[in-house]
Write a structure and sequence with these properties.
The protein has three helices and 21 strands. It is an alpha+beta fold. It has three domains: about 100 residues, Beta Barrel (conserved putative lor/sdh protein from methanococcus maripaludis s2 fold); about 90 residues, Beta Barrel (Elongation Factor Tu (Ef-tu), domain 3); about 110 residues, Helix hairpin bin (Helix Hairpins), CATH 1.10.287.470. It starts with a helix and ends in a 15-residue tail after the last strand.
């Protein structure tokens, strides 16, 4: 029995030893294989870093407003007697737009004006008699009161009639009229929109931390959705003297020439206030920037070196290129370009495409890539 147990233990030891030995041999061969396997080389596209002039901006949003604009309405109720304009027409200041029926008021005015000569003559006669001592001061006062009352009545009737003739308060373009011939208009009815669009204005807000960078007359560009590729140039003409205590922002107004009438009031606009140009700045494509938990990085291509600091060469004796991950500080972004404040210098080769598969010290080869080139025309969907 003891002999049988010893045999079984020996067999078990041989089996376990064979398994362990096989695993050790396999691991050794795998390690040898990976040690002799060539280091993979990844194709990348690069762009050399060149100093450029950078124009920083303050960006904001706002709505376009006319130089002057209002909804013309009537102060007095009445029936439309005549319409002197067409929808969309250009009008000048004090041009007659609509006249309401004022026949009753004009008749009352004529009646009052007809009484004026007799009332004026009676006042002159009373003044003459008072000078001679024939009448008392009370008789003269009554005559003057009658004259002033009639004169005031004439002025009141004339003002009422003037309100029946609705005129343009300033030069501009009218919109679509909302009144028709013969229509009875209640007081305050909206007749038409009038706007002076020769110069447009825009209001926007900026943080109080940016106030020191802003001044009257500073140039700005605005972009509207109707003309996304066309910047409209204007200038800051007013800065609110007080900062909002609730939001900590200050309101700014700018004027934009609109001689071609492309801008319309109410348009949503993106504002870029142009700040002084900063020379010799580093700007790279935004596609080159990687976002990580510890910051924003880019890959820079350089010639590789071994542990002793000697240059790495391939089988053909050419220098081996490696990708180094560099942490950068990114400032302002404009469209596809980002302003780099720290981390890069002129002459660096920045990876712009193919960095997804890279890690620090990855071997790379430079290829041409046209994916980042903008097409001349936008493809149709």
């Amino acid at each position: 029995m003891k002999k049988w147990t010893a045999v079984m233990l020996l067999i078990a030891l041989l089996i376990f030893g064979s398994v362990i030995g096989f695993n050790l041999f396999k691991n050794h061969m795998m390690a040898q294989y990976f040690a002799n396997m060539p280091i993979p080389t990844f194709p990348v596209s690069v762009q050399p870093v060149k100093p450029v002039d950078w124009t920083p901006t303050i960006e904001a949003i706002g709505f376009v407003e006319p130089n002057q604009g209002l909804d013309i309405s009537n102060e007095t109720a009445g029936k439309v007697k005549a319409i002197k304009f067409e929808s969309g027409q250009q009008v000048k200041s004090d041009d007659l737009l609509i006249s309401l029926d004022a026949s009753v008021e004009e008749a009352n005015l004529k009646a009052s004006q007809g009484r004026m000569p007799a009332t004026k003559a009676n006042l002159d006669r009373m003044r003459s008699l008072y000078a001679k001592g024939t009448i008392s001061k009370g008789n003269l006062d009554d005559a003057e009161a009658d004259y002033l009352q009639l004169a005031g009545q004439i002025e009141s009737l004339q003002a009422t009639i003037d309100r029946m003739y609705i005129r343009a308060p300033f030069s501009g373009q009218v919109g679509i009229r909302n009144a028709y011939l013969g229509q009875y208009l209640e007081a305050g009815s909206q007749i038409v929109r009038l706007e002076d669009t020769s110069v447009m204005k825009i209001r926007f807000t900026i943080p109080q931390t940016e106030i020191s960078k802003l001044k009257i007359g500073q140039t700005l560009h605005i972009f509207v959705d109707a003309y996304p590729q066309q910047p409209f140039q204007g200038a800051v003409n007013a800065i609110e003297p007080a900062v909002s205590a609730q939001s900590g922002v200050v309101q700014v107004q700018a004027s934009i020439p609109n001689s071609d009438s492309l801008l319309r009031s109410g348009m949503f606009a993106k504002v870029q206030v142009q700040l002084p140009v900063e020379p010799a700045q580093i700007a790279i494509p935004q596609t080159a920037i990687n976002f990580t938990l510890y910051g924003q990085t880019v890959f820079v291509v350089a010639e590789g070196k071994d542990d002793k600091g000697q240059p790495l060469v391939d089988a053909e004796g050419k220098p081996v290129l490696v990708a180094k991950q560099v942490v950068v500080k990114v400032g302002e972004r404009k469209e596809e370009v980002a302003h780099i404040l720290d981390g890069l210098k002129a002459g660096d080769q920045v990876v712009t495409a193919g960095q997804v598969r890279l890690s620090n010290d990855s071997h790379v080869k430079i290829i041409e890539d046209s994916l980042l080139n903008k097409p001349d025309t936008t493809p149709m969907l």
